[in-house]
């Protein structure tokens, strides 16, 4: 019995539409700058007990380097990180790149994650995110996740579409108590961002 021939999986082009280069904001942080938390209660970068506690730094070449340690609280299968949690980590890292380098509010429109190898509890995932292009309000970004070192084996890849929104997106859809807490705890003020009309 012969095995059916393997067909190579074709990766669609990225970005999937014609884009312009993603211009950095004049006040974007430069290489070596450690990025602050954008909100203390963010599951990705905040101080939530079982959160990711991600840290991010701007790297050379306008990338954002993020990392987090996979703990027992992050398990899916025994001893391995939960796939949805890893997607969350990429959403946080990619969002950090978009928000800090463009300094405009944006939300995730689409996130694709390719899982290439398991991520064990006790490992550290190093995520390198970059901006790939802009088409109107759409911002395309991608990232690789390396195991245990910035040059470690690639365990995951992700591509995302973010959409620029007005500040009112958050005041209209966010819970009023959370927005009040955000403004009282030193969260980014509206005037810190270039707000689109």
Q: Write the element-wise H/E pattern from the N-terminal end onward.
A: EEEHEEEEHH
Mean pLDDT: 87
Number of helices: 3
Reported for the largest beta sheet, the result is: 7 strands, antiparallel
Mind telling me the C-alpha Rg?
Answer: 18 Å
SS-based class? alpha+beta
N-to-C CA distance: 64 Å
Strands in their spatial order, largest beta sheet: 1-2-3-5-6-7-4
Poorly predicted parts: none
| Percent of residues in beta strands | 25-35%
Percentage of residues assigned to helices: 10-25%
Which shape, going by the Cα principal axes? globular
Q: How many β-strand stretches?
A: 7
At a glance:
This protein has 197 residues and is α+β, with helices and mostly antiparallel strands.
What does this 3D model show about the protein?
It is a single chain. By secondary structure, the chain is an alpha+beta fold. The protein is 18% helix and 29% strand. It has 3 helices and 7 strands. The protein has helices at residues 83-102, 168-173, 176-184; strands at residues 34-35, 55-59, 63-69, 106-115, 124-135, 138-147, 154-164. Strands 1-2-3-5-6-7-4 form a 7-stranded antiparallel sheet, covered by helices on one side. The longest helix has 20 residues, at 83-102. The chain is globular and about 40 Å long. The N and C termini lie far apart (64 Å). The mean pLDDT is 87.
């Amino acid at each position: 019995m012969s095995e059916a021939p393997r067909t190579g999986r074709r990766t669609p082009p990225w970005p999937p539409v014609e884009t312009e280069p993603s211009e950095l904001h004049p006040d974007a942080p430069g290489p070596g700058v450690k990025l602050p938390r954008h909100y203390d209660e963010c599951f990705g970068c905040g101080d939530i007990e079982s959160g990711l506690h991600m840290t991010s730094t701007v790297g050379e070449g306008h990338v954002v380097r993020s990392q987090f340690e996979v703990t027992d609280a992050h398990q899916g299968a025994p001893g391995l990180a939960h796939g949805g949690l890893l997607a969350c980590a990429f959403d946080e890292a990619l969002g950090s790149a978009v928000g800090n380098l463009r300094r405009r509010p944006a939300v995730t429109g689409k996130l694709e994650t390719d899982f290439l190898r398991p991520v064990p509890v006790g490992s550290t995932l190093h995520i390198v995110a970059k901006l790939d292009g802009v088409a109107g309000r759409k911002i395309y970004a991608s990232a690789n996740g390396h195991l245990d070192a910035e040059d470690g084996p690639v365990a995951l890849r992700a591509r995302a579409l973010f959409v620029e929104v007005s500040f009112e997106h958050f005041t209209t859809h966010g819970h009023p108590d959370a927005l009040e807490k955000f403004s009282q705890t030193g969260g980014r003020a509206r005037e810190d961002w270039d707000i689109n009309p």
